[in-house]
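Worked example

This section walks through a single chain of length 340. The input is the sequence exactly as stored; nothing has been trimmed or padded.
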Amino acid sequence: MNDRVLIIAEAGVNHNGLIDYALKLVDAASNSGADYVKFQTFNAEKLVSKEALKAEYQKRNTGNESASQLEMLKKLELTPEMHLQLISYCKSKGVKFLSSPFDIESADFLLAVGLDIFKIPSGEITNIPFLKHIGSFNKNIILSTGMSTLEEVEFALNSITQAGTPIEKITVLQCNTEYPTPYKDVNLMAMQTMRKTLGVKVGYSDHTEGIEIPIAAVALGAKVIEKHFTLDRNMEGPDHKASLEPDELKQMVRAIRNVENSLGDGIKKPSESEQKNITIARKSLHYSRNLLKGSILTKNDVTIKRPGNGIPPVNIDTIIGQRLLNNVFEDTIIKPEDFL
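Given that input, the structure is written out below as C-alpha cells.
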C-alpha cells in the first residue's frame, strides 16, 4: 500500500463458477494494467440460510425470481484448488490475486495462502466477530462501507484496531451496494467526510455504469479504486450487467493513471514544461511612438505587448516620469538603461 492509487479489478463471481472463465478474467485484468484482480471466497451454506432471498438487482440480472440466494451462490463458489490455480496464474500474468472472505474459515484460508491485503465487503461491516478476527491478522485491510452510517464505520474501525491492526493499515471505501448505482446515490463527498472525521485513507468501490465516477473519485483523493468487470455483460449472473467489459476496464485504468499523474504536489508555481512559454505569452512595456532624447516619459508613450522579456506591466509606475537618454522608436521594448 503506497501513494500510488491501487486499482482493483473486481472479478467477483463473474466467473460463473467456471475456472476457465476465472482464468480469462485474470488475463483481462492483467491486460488492463490493474494492480489486483479480486474474487470472492465463501462457503454458500455458511454465508446464507435457506430462507435468504435474493436482492432485487440479483433477481433482475439473473432473470430468476424463484431461486434463493443459496441456490444462486452455490453455483458461484470457488474451490480451494481453484484458488491455488488462480494465485499461481496471477503470478505468471503479473497481476496480484485478491479475494474477499465472507466467513471466518474463508479468511483463515486466505491468510494461509499468503494474501497481503484483506478486503472486507460492505455486508460484513456489522459482523464484529468477523472484523475482530481479521483485525487480529495485522494485515493491510480495505473496508467497504456500503449501506453504512458514519457511526457504524467508526465502530467497525475501532473493532479492527482493538484486535491488533493499526489504523494506518486500513483504507475505507465509499460504496453503494445497488447494482448499478444511480449517480444521485454515489455521494463521493462522503469519502472526504470519512477521511477528515475518522483519520483514515479512503477510496471508492464503484457499482455505477461507465467509468466517470471512479475517475472523479481519484481526483477527490481516493487511494484505492475497485470496479467490477466481466468478459461479457450479456452473460448470465447477478453482477455482469453492472460490470465493465475488458476494453472499458483498460480505458478506466488509463484514465485513472492520467488523473493521478495530473494531481501534482499542490504548490502553485510554473511547471517545468511551461517555463519556456512565459516570455512568449506574457507582455512587457513597449514604446507607443518615436521619442527624442531628453523626453519625459508619460503613460501615453507606453503600450503593453508581447513578448514578456522586458519590464513587466506591473512595474509601469517606475518608468513614468523618467527622462530618456537616447532617441527611441515605436514598438521597441522599454529597457531600464533607456533612462537617467
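What to look for: The mean pLDDT is 94.
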